[in-house]
Design a protein that fits this description.
The chain is of the alpha/beta class. Helices cover about 35% and strands about 20% of the residues. The protein is built from 10 helices and 9 strands. A 7-stranded mixed sheet has the order 5-4-3-6-7-9-8, sandwiched between helices. A two-stranded antiparallel sheet has the order 1-2. The longest helix has 12 residues. It is globular and about 60 Å long.
Length: about 270
Amino acid sequence: MAMTSSPVATALVERLRAAGCVYAEQEADLLLEATSGDRAPERLESLVRRRLGGTPLEHLLGWAEFRGLRIAVSPRVFVPRRRSELLVREALEVLAPGDVALDLCCGTGAIAAALIAERPGIVVHASDIDPAAVSCARRNLGDERVHRGDLYDGLPERLRGQIAVIVANAPYVPSASIATMPREAREHESRVALDGGLDGVDLQGRVVAGAREWLRPDGWLMIETSVSQGDLTLALMRSEGFSPHLVHDQELDGTVAVATSTPSVV
């Protein structure tokens, strides 16, 4: 229920809007909800001050909404963006009960959690190199599904050649562009979750290079990218024998490179 009709809420909205919060009304409602059980108003004021100082709302709340789910979020861990819902949508198009899916560079595990919720009967694993992200993902997915390692290094050997779909939101921000990112991201999320190297596709290249030995013969590789970097992502996939294409959703502002592991015909 919206709480922004009270005097306290109205004043809070004005403060948030003055600080540049685009969705001030929604943020005010969530902050009020998060502190509704507190007797002391200092708790709300503390959260508001931190929000005005640039702390992501999701880090203050302890969760982020992703495809209707409340995903646990921890400080310094990459906050799932709505654009990544496109990865979920594309994966659901090809996943069937009994299939194995892998959420690579999983962060909070939001993509894996959405796949589990929306396609009963599939087996989902997730992997990340950042210990903070792994700990957070285990809160969302359980210990047995989440593996710590550099890309594929931490995966159980039994998954080799068995995965139907690999989805990857590998960092794809060019190193020089991180300084121009919103303050919330560059100051409160781990650089390892943002920095994609010189052209933004360094880690994507490694994802692609290692994918085929983990995918089953008719498997799929799906990588989140951007409109400006899409051609680079496609080129990486083609260089490893994949047959890729780009999918873009304007409403989500999401772009995904989708590739079948069937070799390209030249």
